[in-house]
Amino acid sequence: MPDEEHHGIRIHLDRILAERGMTLTELSARVGITVVNLSVLKNGRAKAIRFSTLSRICAVLGCQPGDLITHDTGSP
Fold it and tell me: Which residues of the chain fall short of a pLDDT of 70?
């Protein structure tokens, strides 16, 4: 992955969905974001996320942004 930026940001959407017993499709419908865009986020391929999107995801999942996103301090 030489062209990809290594930012150390980790997305924990898969874990939170499993804890809530919710599918990506259900989250997509409840948040109003396509499954494809949520999949890009879940798989760590997103380059950015709007605060309004993050807020809707957190509201539906009943979590805080820090539950969903962490920074790996061992990465540059």
Answer: 1-6, 75-76
- Grouping H, G, I as helix, E, B as strand and the rest as coil, residue 21 is coil
Angle of helix 35-42 versus helix 13-20 axis, rounded to 10:
110
Structure tokens at 10: 């980790």
pTM metric for this prediction: 0.84
Q: For residue 4, give the DSSP letter.
A: S
What is the DSSP code string of 22-64?
--HHHHHHHHT--HHHHHHHHTT--S---HHHHHHHHHHHT--
Return d(Cα 67, Cα 64) in angstroms, integer: 5
Terminal C-alpha separation, the chain: 15
